[in-house]
């Protein structure tokens, strides 16, 4: 039989796990995109964003607008 304190701790962990899952629910990770030759980070973001929009809209036939992208980041080193 669980004590009240143990039950509260268990529920807190379950709630935290659910929040973590919800925060990652809309994440998309794209692997093996060719490196760009753009040195400026802002230009790189623009180029990568247009690549992703083309991938979703034209190749995968998933309608995505620029406003749908909340945040983009690059995993790994930025090598030019």
Topology:
Elements: H1 4-24, H2 41-59
Written account of the structure:
- The protein is an all-alpha fold and 80 residues long.
- It has one domain (4-68).
- Helices cover 50% and strands 0% of the residues.
- It has 2 helices and no strands.
- The chain is elongated.
- The relative contact order is 0.11.
- The mean pLDDT is 85.
Strand-residue proportion? under 5%
Report Rg. Answer: 20 Å
Q: On the 0-100 scale, what is the average pLDDT?
A: 85
- Inertia-based shape: elongated
Total beta-strand segments: 0
Main sheet: strands, sense, barrel: none
SS class? mainly alpha
Task: Assign a percent range to the helix content.
Answer: 40-55%
The quaternary organization reads as single chain
Q: Unreliable runs, pLDDT <50, ≥5 residues?
A: none
Quickly count the helices: 2
The end-to-end distance, rounded to whole angstroms, is 60 Å
The topology string of helices and strands comes to HH
The count of domains is 1
List keywords for this structure.
single chain; 80 residues; mainly alpha; 2 helices; 50% helix; 0% strand; elongated
In brief, what are we looking at here?
With 80 residues, the protein is mainly α.
């Amino acid at each position: 039989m669980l004590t009240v304190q143990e039950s509260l701790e268990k529920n807190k962990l379950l709630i935290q796990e659910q929040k973590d899952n919800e925060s990652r629910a809309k994440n998309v990770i794209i692997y093996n995109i060719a490196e760009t030759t753009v040195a400026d980070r802002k230009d790189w973001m623009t180029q990568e964003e247009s690549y992703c929009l083309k991938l979703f809209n034209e190749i995968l036939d998933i309608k995505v607008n620029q406003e749908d992208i909340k945040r983009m980041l690059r995993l790994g080193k930025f090598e030019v």
